Model the fold of this input.
Amino acid sequence: MAPQFWMVTDRNIQGNQLGGNHNETEDPLTFWTSTEVDAKKLTSNLRSWTRRTKEQFKALLVGATKDFPAIKDLSEQEKQKHVTFFVHGYNTSWNDAARRYHSVSQNLFSGSDSLGLCVLFTWPSDGMALGYLPDRLDARLAAPDLAAVLNQLYDWMLVQQQVVGDPKKACRAKTSLIAHSMGAFVLQKAMQLVWTRQNQPLLISLINQLLLVAADIDNDIFKGGEAVTKTDGDAIANLCYRVSALYTGRDSTLGLSAGLKHFGKRRLGRSGLDDPEDVPDNVWQVDCSTLISPNAKNVHSSYFDEPRTIDLMREVLRGIDRNVLVARGLVPLPAPPVAAIPALGPTVAPA
Done:
């Protein structure tokens, strides 16, 4: 039976669990697949997963994409299937990460409307309510490991570009990535490493669609517009065909994050882009405040539970144009600007 679930991790292995520490071996990455249909078993221990070598994992993944339908007409590229990496956020044990990943897989990558397949990248978030600062250190430590995965993916895509004239060998999948919360910080640092290694500028886009969901990164990361200054934001914008940032001011979790930042810069996932007009053309944002239920208990993670945000993520990953998404009502129209309050004039006439 072909694998249904895929996982890459740099967590340490503790018996039948993945732990909260970095895997301190020469090659920290381990690779896993599963055919388990029982969600509780899949997310409770490693007995439901099969460990693979890097070569086995790659062969199985490439083999799975060969079953994707070929897109013969370029006008139908929005129907092309995806291999999507999911990077979870802060305060997430492996069990919680696996449960979130299973939810994402069921909502977006299963059934007749499946987008393709999803791969979990799980890093050693401490999974502690007060673990924000330790998690931020873990995120920096995990970035080179995610970069290693993305570098291998880029090298493989270059080979695929060379056989594009042979329809039997052409790639049948786009590559996308969903980064949630502090997972966006892991991605930010990984992207800079990839961009540096590949000697800017790049020959091809590494990621077709990047979804930054409640991103725990500075909201001015893309400042500077089209100018290339080799910042982390430049790396992300140049490695991706399109970057979509989903945010809401209702996210109290990211309010804590901003308070712990020594510069106090606002979070992208809470405040949106610092200046939406001064960003690369392929970067845009969606205020999801009205898409998330007023009764949501955990707004920070509710994007993955709300039908309207799930529908939005599906269409964004498909590559639907942003103006079309607005026209279809999947993207709320921005709130009108608040009218300026007239300045009060002098209360006493001048002498």
